[in-house]
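Notes on consecutive records. When two proteins share a document, each keeps its own sequence and its own token line. Never mix them. Below: protein one.
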Amino acid sequence: MVLCASAFMASLDVFIVNVAFDDIGRDFPGSSLADLSWVLNAYAIVYAALLVPLGSLADRFGNKRAFLTGLAVFTTASAACAASPNLWLLVTFRALQAAGAAALTPASLGLLLAATPTPQRARAVRIWAASGALAAAAGPALGGLLVESSWQWVFLVNVPVGILALTTGTRYLPRTHHSALPRKVPDVFGGLVLAVTIGTLSLTLVKGPDWGWASSSTYLGFLVTAASAGVFRYRTASHPVPLVEPTLFRVRTFAWSNATGLLFNVAFGANILAMILWMQQTWGYSAVRTGLAVAPGPLMVPISAAFAQYAARQLSARTMAATGCMLFALSSMLLALNLSTHPHYAAEMLPSLLISGVGVGLTLPTILSSATIALPAPQTATGSAVVSMSLQIGNSIGVALLVAALTQHTSSNGAGGNFVHGWWMVTSAAVLAALSAWGMAPRERSATSPSLTSRETHAG
């Protein structure tokens, strides 16, 4: 329960601030929309950039230590966000909050697997993953309700939950240390290079619509991303204690689950933002009304995730994930075809919300379970961090593509037509994710898990 609640909070804060945007702006007069966007961007960029470095440290120095440290940082930073007297302090504390989330997320899964008997691990990972998926989907709904009191409550809600989780976790969570991995700090320079790679990619995707996709700033961002990715690949292949073992990507289910998760979150991230913007800008809904209108989708996530757990006895992971992706594609296609500028929520929005919630519940827990269940215990935190990073990058790509679609077609399509291209993009990404899901079937061989390389054994 402690681990699921913490994963819920970390994922929630990626999305919960969306509906508080206008209220934050009113409390900090003189802030431009570009300045306010950093309340969202700072969290997304730092979270994505630090997941793998901090996950690798958790594998080597203990998941419990990493989890409790990350949770303490996250909780403290949440309180500081609520007390921020100006916008840029709020942005700074959001970055610190993201660093705590990046530490606790992979460590929580490592602790979960260490405490769960092998036959029950797939079920446990699905529950943990469903918590994160529910948080991502429920963010706008919960945020809308909290903003009615004050935008500060979007951050303060984390504080009592964090304190309770810290108290309970300190007492009951098991200590884990995997002797198969050396208690040495992994490639520090490689970690910095990876942070630059993911941070630059996220920044370029987030700011691309403002800079212009053909601008020199965008080209420079992608050039730095490609160059630093090449350096990181070289460090991974040559360093005695690499940040990410290359053998991880030789596990078929791990590699294809990452690809599927990235593609699915392109659709998922864009779809959530598109629905919120549609209801607030086109239908004129308030923040709280938008949050309540979105709520039926998240409510379907735990229901469909429970069904997926039962159906996993008869259906393969790739069938489950592909089905969820296609349902999500269907939900966005219905929006593209049926939405009108006059509010007809029950007839036009609600069916798509329900179908998309089922799709999320079938897909995201299956992807995370398939990606991590085949990994050896010493690499679970690193592996889950890589998957979480893929999901976050997918979300950033989806938001950037949606903003680009809305900006590109604003002048010619009118209020309703602005979003049609965005939802067709969401549909295409979900279909591609369904095709990718068919690669998630493990190879038929005796050793499906990666083993430690000889260089790391000698390094120990």
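Protein two starts on the next line and is unrelated to protein one.
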Amino acid sequence: MAYFYKPRCKCKGKKCTCGVSWAYIIDIGKDPKTGKRKQKKKSGFRTKKEAEAAAAILQNEINQGLYIKESNVTFEDFAKEWISLYKGSGIVKESTVRVRKHEIKRLSDYLAKLKLKDITRKQYQNALNDLIMRGYAQNTIDGAHRTGRMIFKKAVELEIIKKDPTEYTQVPKKQKTVEDLEIGNSLPNYLEKEELQHFLRVTKKFGLDQDYPIFLLMAYTGIRVGEICSLKWRDIDFEEMTISISKTYYNPTNNRKEYKLQPPKTPAGVRIIDIDDTVITELRKHKLAQIEVIMKHRDIYHNEDFVFASIDEELPGFPLYIKKIGNRMRRLLKLAELNTKLTPHSLRHTHTSLLAEAGVSLPQIMERLGHRDEDTTKYVYLHVTKEMKKEASQKFKELMENL
């Protein structure tokens, strides 16, 4: 039963200027702890009819057991609670949690101090639209939207809010310029076969300690730089000539002592790669050289079985970190007079292109690279095979002309 009233006017006999409006009080149940009845009050209605209509909606929710007393928690505070629950689930990597925190910051620019229950669909959509206007990359905004949807979905699930304002919202697609289209149609950087041979020759001759086995292995297997840094000798089967990939290196601060080893991002990342005798021979040489380093620093060596480990006097045995390998590669590219914008990941694209050129099928390549689905790999593969098909057509034409 609802009770409707007009709060007492405070103008004390003068001409009313306070704009007193209609309000309602309605019983919403009993407190389970005290047994006392609980009431919901709401004011601000211009007429009694408006107050009656709003009370009727609330009464219907109560009768159907759908009433939720929304919390006054702000987006900022609930996001902190959510990230704690997300991290504590035990099914996400630390690196993923770190990404989610960055995505929350993007949304917090607009929503931080707003009560979760007051955020409208229009406000949320405007936030996404403004991120586009501020020039953020499409992937960045897509990520922020994914995180936003998870946060509000959890708030609904916990009965903190009634409705999810992210429903029916979407990330607007940025209108591409001619320059964007030209860049988008370009292939990722990779080395041609002759360039790779030249790069490896330069690496063997001028490379710093461990450079040659590192870049040879990356070029011949297509494994990621994080997988290289976390690789252990127990992962290499010299008899079967295989490498097992089951982890990746994580160290966002580049503090060599604070590294972590994490499982691959997807189940497909766990795999066994066949290697040839060229790689096996080089790894055997590298292992012998490493044994000498271990003996030299036996008292302080961080002996955790890493294949590629530091040999310096300060922290011998700690795994090489990703940034260092990138810097090493840049130095060698400069010496080889090759494109210095190439990165260790470019060797992965190079491996894809050369496998395609060798006639290896796309499913086989994706299995070797640890991809369940990867557009860039497909793009490189289709580009190479398209060129091969053109070459086949040209060869057939030349054959017929020479008859």
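For the record: Residues 75-177 form a domain with the DNA polymerase; domain 1 fold (CATH 1.10.150.130).
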